[in-house]
Write a structure and sequence with these properties.
By secondary structure, the chain is an alpha+beta fold. It has nine helices and 35 strands.
Length: 598
Amino acid sequence: MLDLTAFVPKARFQPGVALSPDATKVAYSSNVSSHYGLWVAPVRGGEPRCLVEFPDQAVRQIAWAPDGRSLVFMADRDGDEQYQIYRIPADGGTPEKLSAADNRQYRLAADPYDPNGRYLIYAANDRDETVQDLIIRDLHDGREHRHIPVGKASYQAGRVSPDGRWLVVEGFNSNIDSDCYLVDLAKPDADPVKVTDGSAHFDPVGWTADSRAFYLLTTVWGEFIAGARYSLDDHSLRPAVTADWDIETVREAGETLLWIVNENGRSVLNVRRGGNAPTQPVLPPGVINAIDLSSNGTIAALHLETATRSAEIAVLDLTSGRLTYITDSRPPALATIEPIEPQTVTFTARDGRDIHGLLYRPHGEGPFPVVMWIHGGPEAQERFTYERSGLYQYLLNQGIAIYAPNAAGSTGYGVTFRTLIYRDWGGVDLRDFEDAAAYVSSLSWIDSDRLAVAGASYGGFGALSCLTRLPDLWSAGVSLYGPSNLVTLAAACPPTWRAFVNIILGDPVADAQFLTERSPITYVDQLTAPLLVIQGARDPRVPQDEADQLVDKLRGRDVDVRYIVYEDEGHGFTNRDNEIAAYKQVGDFLISRLKPET
């Protein structure tokens, strides 16, 4: 049998891509050598070049200066999410730190420069750690034009119009409640003006080529996210592109308009050039995690991933439809075995809702043990991606099935479905997980006596809820950086998240009794299945105490629990060696509990 390392991609990439202004190069963040560093590769093919790799920091978002002579990027230390902003010449050199406070969070705008390169735009909580201000920094004189949000909203610095006049930003309250604000860059000290109205999601994603309107994603017209167009001329908001699923982005440049639709977990790219009818370029069935469009609208850079091929950086010629992979991170196992594609499955929950999900069946006859993997978020979705550094394909190769349900709270199935989880963690979601376990156990090729549950972040909470409150169902469980106590989780949330956490989870003081009733730690004495817990010591979202308090109680009862702490990791993994080691530990643990005969 192949080891997990045979399934691990040669590199992973942060979900972002940046085309140079002349569209000859693409910049991205890769951990091919160890930590996530800044790499640049020629669009037409050739060897990539590493410009930056810190020994203890991970490069995140990247953007080119308008003249193409330098790049800016964000980086954080050991996953602490205290992002700092750096600038580096395009031909290499020593990064220049632009942000001021090491213990604060700075976030670059989606388009952080105006076309002339005078202003650098970002958001920061350096004034007040609980508030994310908008900052427009004049690179000519060093002056900062600071805008403080009104009420509980946090500014998400957005996109600059092609003519350099306007900046559109998002005022974020929650994932379903946000507004768009306009800033006149001719008057950078003037207050941002709110241009949307109503309790809905408004997220700016791009501008029209003539700078007279901007595109945004919104739920104002119904359950699913639509692509809209806000006109600066008459201040109207009209549909631009719609579908029976969520629109993920809309971009326009030159004569090209493109948009991506999330069709039940797959990204479908639509392209309209000039006055022609829309087309759908032939792409492998998977997920476009990020896209950047050249200024003339002829080239798109993609961060593209499928269930059977790990994420890659690719370039799509929108004139010919030709897709070219810039990177090749395919692991050695995929040269010798046939990776397994998931099938989409649906069952009806006890309250009549349809629960979608992905089911992976190993080669052979079965019956197979199965791992029910719960995605994070909770406002996320199990999609057609190469999961967990090859862990899914490794377990499948070992004869273990994977079932990944999109239970209540998942995105992709409408606002009502998504918000069922709000202030109800451990309620409707747990009922869905119980029904999902019953569904997968009913399949003739599944061994229902060998069922495990696993997940990361919120998925870890879901796994712990299942193990403590539905203890008779499981043969084993895994929690990666999953919260165990909702009261302490809410109290320790990152400062800029406090208002959002109160909306989606609850208040640690006012709702303490309710949150206690929904916490896995409250029912820890019912947990009997073998458990693996993995935690990052520097995690700002789910602090190590969430794992410590759970493990302490289990060890006091002499439960089979294995606890692994990565001292130099935060919420997830930034160090490649740590990531490989952790998922090998997860895989080997599940195999030993579900297939002890091997």
